Amino acid sequence: MHCQCETPDLGAGASRRGFLGTALGAALFTALGAAAPMAYAAETALPDNRIGGKAALARLMHGNARYAAGHSRKRDYAIGRAARVRGQKPYAAILGCADSRVAPELVFDQGLGDLFVVRVAGNVADDDAIASMEYAVKFLDVPLVMVLGHSNCGAVASTLKVLQDKAVLPGHLPGLVDAIIPAAQAAMRRGGPNLLEEAIEQNVIETTARLATAAPILAPMHASGAVTMVGGLYDLASGKVALV
After folding, report:
1. Alpha-carbon distance values, 78 to 25, 49, 59, 85 (Å)
2. pLDDT tens, 122-138?
3. DSSP the chain
4. Distance between terminal CA atoms of the chain?
5. Beta strand 241-243 pairing with 228-234
6. What percentage of the chain exceeds 90 in pLDDT?
7. 232 and 244 in contact (C-beta within 8 Å)?
8. Rounded CA gap, 163 and 189, in Å?
């Protein structure tokens, strides 16, 4: 029995293009679709994050130096994906500001799974942020906690407006400002030349102190040296982080 179907005549040029397209697709499938999963599947172990607070801080700061110098590492984020499905072992936890210009993974030139990040405007340590840090150190064995503030912080600037100009903020913003007021008042009492930047730094210092004294988990772990706690300030202009 003979098939009566006819193949439409697309012309010699179209036939050659179709053949070349098929061959190219097959080659790409072989190179990307077959070889890559085998390479990724070979990496199954998560990195050990039990490196101590001093080494963790050094790793963070070296990463920031690369970022600030424009030498951030190129990464293939697909590598290690299978391992990350099974768990996480971040070596540092960061309480940072929600500001869109301050992304810790970029600022410290780190990969997926390296940092446990909590972000809230003004990098304030409310109950949820403290609980998140507790989870990081208690259950993920994170050896380093950093509070990361940044220059020109809008949350701190708004707090100063409330104190100096009696500004009235809408919605839930007053509750956020209340957490920053003590640091802003301390900066105002000192009367330095740059009130905003001094209030930002004081807010980092006070937030770090609150985490370091938070019972029942963070305080004893910090006191014993099991967890290192530091404050940092990110400069938007230079890209550098300075410890405070």
Report:
1. 22, 20, 22, 12
2. 999 999 999 999 999 99
3. -----------HHHHHHHHHHHHHHHHHIIIIIIHHHHHHHH--PPPP--S-HHHHHHHHHHHHHHHHTT-PPP--TTTTHHHHHH----SEEEEE---TT--HHHHTT--TTSEEEEE-GGG---HHHHHHHHHHHHHS---EEEEEEETT-HHHHHHHHHHHH-----TTHHHHHHHHHHHHHHHHHHT-S-HHHHHHHHHHHHHHHHHHT-TTTHHHHHHHTSSEEEEEEE-TTT--EEE-
4. 86
5. antiparallel
6. 78
7. yes
8. 12
Burial class of residue 237 in the structure, from the number of CB atoms within 10 Å of its CB (0-12 exposed, 13-18 middle, 19+ buried): exposed
Dump pLDDT digits (tens) for 191-233. 989 999 999 999 999 999 999 999 999 999 999 999 999 999 9
Q: In whole angstroms, what is the distance from residue 73 CA to residue 86 CA?
A: 25
